[in-house]
């Protein structure tokens, strides 16, 4: 379960890092959320090392921290690049999926949008390159199903392979954790930072209707936290083990609940997002409608 959790989080973090590199943009990442995450991950790493928790928990804490640093570096680097070389970028899509209008009928590229700290958490990135032709609903649905299935199969395979590889080491057993007050304080700080980082996102989703959120990433985040909690509980259920690991259990367990709420919001607002997208494509005036017809005929 521990190694399956690592595989889940590799999938979660790989997507934004690769998208940020591919699109040369960090406009949709909020530095406020990344700062909270980094602080939580650093305290998580320090607490898990001091407390001597199971190896996969420590490895994950280190991986979280490294990925946060990479994302923050990308945000600063690509925002600086956008500011110094605006000619390389086309209009950035807003949260409703529409590009900002051109000013005064000018055909020149508009100024690049300024990143907002209210940008959706784990959102899809604003592309500066011409967008690919949209897939049909059936093809998009099939693509999503394959993405989910492929990711979950990978997670299961990694967990099984790691279990076989570590079978001999697991037979030796492990030393029961000893309470460390300093480590516990740091662990509880990390837990509350993790839980607190989700609350602004829940409030923001009510305004944005979850536009721009990556459903796939949240699904794998739930999977990663679930296997993370399972790895701790399956190691031992002794009162001492549960007490020592309480901050990590609460931090991940509470995040699972909050991420499920986010997924619920995503489903609940699906109809409103679809209606808004359709309304945005409707012409406002009769001349606009004829122009749209002319474009379709062309």
Automatic annotation (TrEMBL):
**Membrane topology, as annotated:** Multi-pass membrane protein
Q: What are the UniProt keywords, alphabetically? A: Membrane, Transmembrane, Transmembrane helix
One GO molecular function term of this record is:
basic amino acid transmembrane transporter activity
Transmembrane stretches, by residue range?
Answer: 6-22, 29-47, 53-78, 145-165, 185-204, 211-234, 246-269
Q: Where in the cell is it found?
A: Membrane
* Superkingdom as given in the UniProt entry: Eukaryota
Protein name per its UniProtKB record: PQ-loop-domain-containing protein
Q: What organism is listed for this UniProt entry?
A: Rhodotorula paludigena
The record, for PANTHER family, names: SEVEN TRANSMEMBRANE PROTEIN 1, SEVEN TRANSMEMBRANE PROTEIN 1-RELATED
Q: Which Pfam families match?
A: PQ-loop
